[in-house]
Each structure stands twice: as structure tokens, then as C-alpha cells.
Amino acid sequence: MVGGMLSAFAILLCVTALLAFLNERFLHFPTTVGVTLAGALASIVLIALDALGLPGLRGWASGVLSTLNFTEFVLNGILSVLLFAGSLGLNARQLLRQRGSILTLAFLSTLISTFLIGFAAYGVFALVGLNVSLMWSLLFGALISPTDPVAVLDLLKRAKVPVKIETLIAGESLFNDGVGVVIFLALASAAGIGGHAGDVSAGSVLGLFAREALGGLLFGALLGGLGYVMLRSIREHAVEVLITLALVIGGYVAAAALGISGPLAMVVAGLLISAWKEDVFTDSTREHVEGFWETIDQVLNIVLFAFIGLDVLLTETTGAQLLASALLIGVALAARWISVAIPFSLVRAREGYGAYTVRLLTWGGLRGGIAISLALGLPDSPYRTHVVTATYAVVLFTIAVQGLTIMPIVRRAVEASPDEG
């Protein structure tokens, strides 16, 4: 008999294929946006049918999704593959030239946004009578601040923005993903919740942050170097694919065991192999390896966003939670703009970005599966459902509204920066 998790994944895969087909055949939205909206609509229909006295389907669908466990599926499943594939597809040399602006945004912007959203969320929750603690509000700020590299990279592929702006947005999203997870873990440790409880002194929190972030960067460099040594000595594309896959899966598991940031390690490893791919691959093997990672990236990308839409089934909401969520959508947007504009002012003139770049970074700051998986991974608490509901609201808004309306800002950014192509 087929195992429960395999059966659940098979159902998710079939539903995702159907949603993607319907979107491609009739809606013609960007695939990630289309499958997310279709999945959310399907969830709402099942909820409505259950409310009208047709029980069974919602409970069955919820059971399937619960079996998969969104947090495990993303953080300990497909995230390593998606981050490596995204960084492998970037122009690593161009990213190195823009390292100052990318790292400034990835670290400083994420920190600023975390505390802006956290303190504002504390006030918003209190305003509607939910009274979420300050530490849990800061955790919400940490998990919702990073832009999702999967969503952003899919958007950039369709938008055809200039290479300089594309590298800036994609590079920031890849690095701030890892940074955001590290900040989240540091705050969870300070709050003493879940499996992150421990010494809550300022020194221990800073030490955790340094170990996770710096350890992840160094371990990623080690993985990339190992990949370079192995790949340059062979010319069989199937073995090269196998080596890169082993580096990603094995490296991510090893990073978790070492207590360092797996996401940052995958980004660095992918960028190093991308920088050296002309040396380690022949033209034919490079085509096979890049084709494999591009295909697996696109397929898992679609599955992830279908899961996001369908997972609405598992979110119980109240009127106060919906009101808080609506207010926090505005808070997240404002915090994104402020947290980009302040650090960007340090690098914009020196590196020659156009006038619309801040607006593009703000409106193109989509959130996705990482935010939801961190929220769902929070331990049971009186505050948990408030944070999960707000997280879903912000994620769905960025995907559905920002994702569908980004093109006018892209066009203006291109017109304002004709020299950045």
C-alpha cells in the first residue's frame, strides 16, 4: 500500500497540474500567480460547500495538506533546491560587481523591516483587541520581511527588466531569505519559544546570528569549491547533475546538523558554481545541467504556489484577525518602502541606479512560501493563529495584487534607466 505522505504528494501534484493547465489554457496569468489564485479559490469553494452542509471534501483536503506539512515541505524539503537553482541561473560576475548594494539591502533592509513591522504589528494587534505580545509581533516582522526568491525570480523572468536591476532584485531576495530566517531564529531564541529556547542574553542572540549567517556563507563557499574540484574533472552530464544534486541535498542536511544557515549556504554554493560554469562544464554538459535545474526549479515553483493557495483551507479566521491582517498589509508595504529607501540612499548615487528602482524594489517585494512555512512552524500559543492569518493575508496580497500590477512600474523603471541594460 502506498504511504500516506507519498499519496498526499501525488494528490498535490495532480491538483497542481490541473490548476496550471487551467491557468495556461484560460487565464494566462503568470504561472505562480495563477496557480496561487486558483488554489485559494478552490479552498474557498470547499469552505463554502462545507458551510452549506456538504461536509467531507474540506476535511479530506485538509487531511491531505496536513499530511504533507507545509513547514517541512518547504524549509526541510524543496527550499534547498529552489535557492540553489535560482542562484545557479544568475550572472554571478554581475552580482559580484553589485555586491555592495545587494548585501546592504539583504542585511540592513531586512533588519530595519523586521523591527518596523514588529513594533507596528504590536500596535495593530492591540488596536483590534488581539493583544499579541511584543516578541511574537517581532517574530511576525522577521518572517514577513524577506522577499521570497521563488516568487521574485519567476516575476523577473517574465518582466524582462535590465540586467543590472534584475541582478539587484534577485540577489537581494536570495540573500535576504537566508538573513530573514537567521533573524527569525535569533528572535525565537530570545523569546525562549519552541525548539529555539535557550540562553536569551544579547551576547547569545548575536552569537547565534553570527554563527548561522557567517557559518552558512563559509559552508556554502566550501560546497561550491568542492563542486568545482569534482565537476571540472569529468565530462558526463548525468554524473554532473548527480554531483550538483548531492551537494544541494547533502549540503543542506549537513548545514542543519551543524547549526548554520542552509539557505545562505545554498545561495553561495550556487553562485560559485555559476561563476565557474564556463570552466567546469563543456557547452553540451552545461546545457544539460542548466536545463535540469531550470526545469526542476519551474516545476517545484508551481507546486509550492499551488500549495500556498490550497493551504488557505487550514487557516481559521475571525473578524478581528481579518481587520488586523488588512491593516498589516499596509504596514508591510510601508515598511518595505522605508527599509529599502534608507539603505538604498547609501549606494544609489555611487552605483547609478535609476529613479524608479526603489519603487520597483518595493512593489516587487513579493512574499511566499518561506514566510508561511515559518509562521506555520510556530509552536502552539494564543497568538499563533493571529500571526498565521496575517502572514497569509500579506503573502496572498503580494502575489495576487502586486504580482499582477508590477509591469507598469517595470516599464517606468526601464524608461528611467536606459543605461542599465
TrEMBL record:
Record InterPro entries: Cation/H_exchanger_CPA1, Cation/H_exchanger_TM
Topological relation to the membrane, as annotated: Multi-pass membrane protein
Pfam families cross-referenced by the UniProt entry: Na_H_Exchanger
Segments forming domain Cation/H+ exchanger transmembrane: 15-411
Transmembrane domains' residue ranges: 6-22, 34-53, 73-90, 102-128, 134-153, 174-193, 213-231, 243-276, 322-344, 356-378, 390-410
Localization (cell): Cell membrane
Entry keywords, A to Z: Antiport, Cell membrane, Ion transport, Membrane, Sodium, Sodium transport, Transmembrane, Transmembrane helix, Transport
Keyword NAD: no
Family: Belongs to the monovalent cation:proton antiporter 1 (CPA1) transporter (TC 2.A.36) family.
Name of the protein this chain belongs to: Sodium:proton antiporter
Lineage start: Bacteria, Thermotogati, Deinococcota, Deinococci, Deinococcales
